[in-house]
Design a protein that fits this description.
The complex is a heterodimer of chains A (424) and B (287). Chain A is built from 8 helices and 19 strands. Chain A has 424 residues and is α/β, with parallel strands linked by helices. By secondary structure, chain B is an all-alpha fold. Classes of the chains: A alpha/beta (424), B mainly alpha (287).
Chain lengths: 424, 287
């Protein structure tokens, strides 16, 4: 197999702050330094792109020492936290911007889809925009003509094809735009988080189309997403970026595990979302685990343990109720678990820290990302002591030991295995 | 060993490095994206009159009204000479040509800003955008020239005679030079405005000032003051003169003026391409 993409030691620096009149003198200084054969005075190699650490100078390295090769026909996922450099990498790969150093080699035609409907003109009709958008994405006219019927069919906006797109609903707009992109004839397809738009059914269709493109047509795909289960479904291998550096490039399962667990060791919880209004009690040290091992990625049927500490700051006259809420990635509340329902009482009479462990046996949620919120307070007077909203998340990625079939998010929320009997 | 052998058979279609050849017209790339160029031109033309009542007639209305106003203000009130030509024809020829130049310049001067959202999301040779502007404006210019032809025919019908000879064949050359200059200056400005926004404030009124330093509303024969040299070195002057000479038979058109126009236009165009190429690859980081 031959290579489709080779990235050699790419780095990208950005200047912080404003480009105001001050940059003219900066430009002159830089020009003068380069003229004399010196190093650029504004680029000091070695500073890392970590927002938590205060760096000197006003240059930030958004990407550093990125090195990888991609074989023809591979589907590669790219994951990382916000600010890890995913978008910068995609921009360099799709030639929107140049690297500060290093080189990039591409074999075959590459098309990038960083946004759905780039260059759509509101006054033009759907038909005209298919041609325009296709050409912007690098298609030749005859290729668009050849695929025209298929594009229209895929988009499902046949009736409105001669209507200006400004009259389209946003859903129709996105459908048409993705339909064009899905029929790109390039050997390499670079896709950003475009699936985040559109309804669930259409997302599924898009994912299916991408699957087909990579598996059947043997084209190379680079896919950036926060949707771990989509990456898991589509990509054999995944790149994990962290603070602008390539952390891991390996089999998707392995990388997802590293990603979710690294998240976790770095910062268990983001306390800014916690509202400790009353100064009566607050949550600390929330940890997810399976059989005592810290873990953020699960399969259906596994056991999820939530461990948390509750710090009682003032003695309370009334009993405190504690509640665990679980939401899916759409924000839909799936479960609302209260201690007393399990005949348990989180005591709060004496100030001090107490540690609790809540065990969910046999998780039956469909693959998705789930967010946990913790609430404690007085239920009789409905006073909130602390509410840690979406404090920690976990992912269900597959059917585990229960099933090996693919479980698209759209198919349901709960994975149930009731007893089936034939009735005589 | 395996590594070496794969390296040998590996063929790269594209190699991106931070540095790049400074003067690269990318003809191959432009040819590859010719369909896009065509569609951009079509988009510019069609979207101009979509949902308007008069449609393409709008292409005529602006030059007609400007000509009427100029005829009244400069011709009748100020009493400026028109070199013996009927006033409407003199002004119409000047305005139409100048408008093509200024449209090319002003519209290409905002290329990066106007297209920042597209340029930030997808790659195609950036030069396609300004080129499409120059071409779609050429289409508009062509339509407006037919208006000039109609007016000339009207005067011929009424017994007026023009000194039109073989020089009319030079007309397309002057149009090309005008396009190169407008494009060149526009490219310089758009490249510089990615970092220094100040220039964008200068463009519209700068072009207006430049018009007064060009022989658009007065003939060159009427200039004999100490400002003569400004008008002479202005690279647009002899182009406008050439257009008037080739279409109306009145104006300065010599081998020298042609060579001067040719060289100055090419110079401006090449400088424009150089600066544009330098900026296009990473402007998205600064805009």
């Amino acid at each position: 197999m031959s290579l489709a993409i080779k990235v050699e030691n790419i780095a990208k620096a950005y200047q912080l702050g404003q480009f105001d009149s001050g940059s003219l003198s900066g430009d002159l200084k830089r020009w003068w330094a380069l003229k004399r054969g010196k190093e650029d005075p504004f680029l000091k190699i070695g500073e890392s792109n970590d927002r938590t650490i205060k760096g000197k100078g006003n240059i930030i390295w958004s990407l550093k020492n990125i090195d990888f090769e991609i074989q023809r026909g591979e589907a590669i996922g790219i994951i990382g936290r916000n600010g890890a450099g995913k978008s910068t990498l995609l921009k360099i790969l799709s030639q929107v911007t140049t690297p500060t150093s290093g080189s990039l080699k591409i074999s075959g035609r590459a098309a990038s889809l960083l946004e759905v409907g780039t260059g759509f003109h509101p006054e033009l009709t759907g038909r005209e925009n298919i041609f325009l958008n296709g050409a912007i994405l690098g298609m030749h006219k005859h290729e668009i003509v050849k695929n025209f019927d298929e594009i229209v069919d895929f988009s499902g906006v046949e009736r409105f094809i001669d209507t200006p797109v400004k009259r389209y609903s946003s859903g129709m707009y996105v459908r048409l735009a993705f339909a064009v992109a899905a029929h790109l004839q390039s050997e390499i397809l670079i896709v950003d988080e475009v699936l985040a738009v559109g309804d669930a059914e259409f997302q599924k269709k898009c994912l299916g189309k991408m699957n087909q493109v990579s598996k059947n047509d043997g084209r190379t795909i680079l896919f950036v997403s926060h949707n771990i289960s989509a990456i898991n479904q589509l990509c054999e291998k995944t790149i994990l970026l962290s603070n602008g550096e390539l952390r891991e490039f390996a089999e998707t399962n392995k990388v997802i595990n590293t990603y979710l667990n690294s998240n976790f060791s770095n910062s268990t919880t983001d306390w800014s979302v916690s509202v400790n209004l009353s100064k009566k009690a607050c949550f600390t040290n929330i940890i997810l685990s399976k059989m005592g091992v810290n873990k953020r990625v699960f399969s259906i049927g596994e056991t999820l343990e939530i461990t948390f500490e509750i710090n009682i700051q003032k003695p309370n006259e009334n009993d405190v109720k504690t509640c665990i809420e679980i939401k899916n990635s759409d924000g839909l509340k799936i479960a609302n678990v209260i201690d007393v329902d399990s005949n348990f009482q989180v005591t709060s009479l004496n100030p001090g820290k107490k540690k609790y462990k809540v065990k969910f046996n046999d998780l039956r949620f469909y693959p998705d990302t789930y967010y946990i919120s913790l609430w404690c307070g007085d239920m009789t007077s409905i006073e909130t002591y602390d509410y840690a909203e979406d404090i920690i998340s976990f992912d269900i990625i597959d059917g585990g030991s229960l099933t090996s079939r693919t479980l698209p998010k759209i198919a349901g929320l709960l994975f149930l295995t009731p007893e089936w009997n034939e009735k005589k | 060993m395996k590594n070496i052998s794969t390296k040998e058979i590996q063929h790269w279609d594209l190699i991106i490095t931070p540095k790049k050849k400074t003067f690269d017209l990318q003809f191959g790339q432009i040819w590859n994206y010719r369909d896009l160029l065509f569609l951009f031109v079509k988009r510019d033309i069609v979207s101009f009159y979509k949902q308007t009542l008069l449609g393409p007639i709008w292409f005529f209305i602006q030059p007609i009204f400007t000509t009427i106003i100029y005829t009244i203000v400069f011709g009748s009130i100020a009493g400026l000479s028109t070199d013996g030509l009927p006033k409407p024809i003199f002004y119409l020829a000047g305005i139409t040509s100048w408008n093509y130049f200024s449209d090319c310049l002003i519209k290409t001067s905002t290329t990066f800003r106007d297209n920042a959202s597209i340029f930030g999301k997808v790659y195609f040779p950036r030069i396609i955008s300004p080129l499409s502007i120059v071409i779609s404006n050429l289409f508009r210019f062509g339509i407006q020239i037919t208006l000039l032809v109609i007016v000339i025919l009207y005067y011929l019908y009424n017994g007026y005679t023009f000194n039109i000879d073989w020089k009319v064949l030079l007309f397309p050359l002057f149009v090309l030079l005008m396009a190169l200059q407008g494009l060149g200056i526009g490219l310089i400005i758009t490249a510089l405005t990615t970092k220094y926004r100040d220039l964008s404030h200068l463009v519209t009124f700068g072009v207006q000032l430049m018009m007064y330093a060009t022989t658009v509303i007065y003939p060159i024969t009427s200039v004999n003051s100490k400002f003569y040299w400004i008008i002479i070195i202005n690279p647009m002057t002899f182009i406008i003169e050439g257009i008037k000479a080739s279409t109306l038979g009145v104006g300065i058109l010599t081998t020298h003026t042609i060579i001067y126009s040719l060289l100055s236009s090419l110079f401006i165009f090449i400088i424009g391409i150089l600066i544009f190429n330098k900026v296009e690859k990473s402007f998205i980081d600064t805009i």
